[in-house]
């Protein structure tokens, strides 16, 4: 995991927001499941969120009001692909599906 904090921010002022964001990222089951279901057009297994294997996470805090993350993970419905979510604050904004050779948005499936 990599956390980028804009140089004008003090770690003491950003720490509470960072801890809150880390907690949300670890528990955003409803948001991730809803987003993924809408892109795939199908229901996911009940344990889908619990089977996610996170490969990398980059969190960026530009200000206390401007932050986001890029999370790259593997999951059970597309086992031969890697998925990357771009998250703006608490909203999944975009995705990328990587199959090892090419990449495309999930909407192309």
Describe this structure in words.
The protein has 109 residues and is α+β, with helices and mostly antiparallel strands. The chain has one domain (2-108). The protein is built from 2 helices and 6 strands. It has helices spanning 11-26, 29-40, and strands spanning 2-5, 53-61, 67-74, 82-88, 91-98, 103-104. The chain has a 6-stranded mixed sheet with strand order 1-2-3-4-5-6, with helices on one face. A hairpin with a 4-residue loop joins strand 5 (91-98) and strand 6. The longest helix is centred in the N-terminal third of the chain and has 16 residues, at 11-26. The radius of gyration is 15 Å and the shape is elongated. 9% of the residues are buried. The mean pLDDT is 88.
């Amino acid at each position: 995991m990599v956390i980028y904090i804009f140089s004008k921010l003090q770690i003491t002022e950003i720490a509470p927001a960072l801890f809150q964001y880390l907690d949300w990222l670890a528990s955003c089951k409803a948001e991730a499941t809803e987003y993924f279901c809408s892109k795939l057009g199908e229901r996911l297994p009940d344990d889908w969120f619990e089977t996610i294997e996170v490969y990398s996470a980059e969190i960026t805090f530009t200000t206390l009001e401007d932050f986001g993350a890029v999370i790259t993970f593997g999951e059970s419905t597309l086992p031969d692909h890697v998925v990357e979510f771009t998250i703006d604050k608490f909203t999944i904004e975009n995705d990328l599906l990587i199959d090892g050779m090419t990449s495309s948005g999930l909407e192309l499936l």
